[in-house]
């Protein structure tokens, strides 16, 4: 399956690092960053997140310009966007986030198995941050994407 091939390719990324200031057991890597040639000022950026068993990311928002498509290539992710229901997304399932959405829950649904998430952002090219802790200033970012 293509998602599993992508997981194998991305899981060994040298760009992976612990998500600073938010969460435990989550490694994040920028895996794609390209300007959109037909949409001046916009870029597409791919962020790969590996959650250890029981791993999570603190509640966060994304840049005001960000449209996000997220897919789960392996494992299961528990997620909540805005005041919607907490939903578990299993391998090969996906969800999206719109500019201004709050991502209150982002965690591995399993305490015993790892899980992976690929988030694709369409965002202002000048934007260097991908997440901001909920309730904190946008100038205090969790994760740089550029």
Q: Biggest sheet, in brief?
A: 12 strands, antiparallel
Average predicted confidence as pLDDT: 81
Question: Quick one: how many beta strands?
Answer: 12
**Remind me, CATH topology?**
Jelly Rolls
Q: Distance between termini?
A: 29 Å
Sequence of secondary-structure elements: HEEEEEEEEEEEE
What is the number of helices?
A: 1
Structural class: mainly beta
What is the CATH superfamily? Jelly Rolls
Percent in helix:
under 10%
Name the shape in a single word: globular
Name of the CATH class: Mainly Beta
Strand content: over 45%
What is the domain total for the residues?
A: 1
Radius of gyration, in angstroms, nearest whole number? 14 Å
Low-confidence stretches: 1-21, 136-146
Any guess at the CATH architecture?
Sandwich
């Amino acid at each position: 399956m293509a998602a599993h091939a992508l997981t194998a390719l991305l899981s060994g990324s040298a760009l992976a690092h612990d998500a600073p200031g938010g969460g435990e057991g989550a490694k994040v890597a920028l895996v794609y960053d390209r300007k959109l040639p037909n949409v001046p000022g916009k870029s597409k950026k791919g962020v790969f997140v590996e959650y250890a068993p029981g791993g999570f990311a603190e509640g966060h928002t994304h840049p005001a310009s960000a449209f996000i498509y997220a897919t789960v290539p392996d494992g299961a992710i528990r997620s909540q966007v805005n005041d919607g229901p907490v939903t578990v997304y299993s391998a090969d399932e996906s969800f999206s986030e719109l500019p201004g959405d709050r991502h209150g829950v982002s965690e591995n649904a399993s305490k015993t198995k790892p899980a992976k998430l690929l988030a694709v952002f369409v965002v202002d090219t000048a934007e260097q941050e991908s997440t901001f802790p909920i309730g904190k200033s946008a100038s205090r970012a969790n994760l740089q994407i550029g």
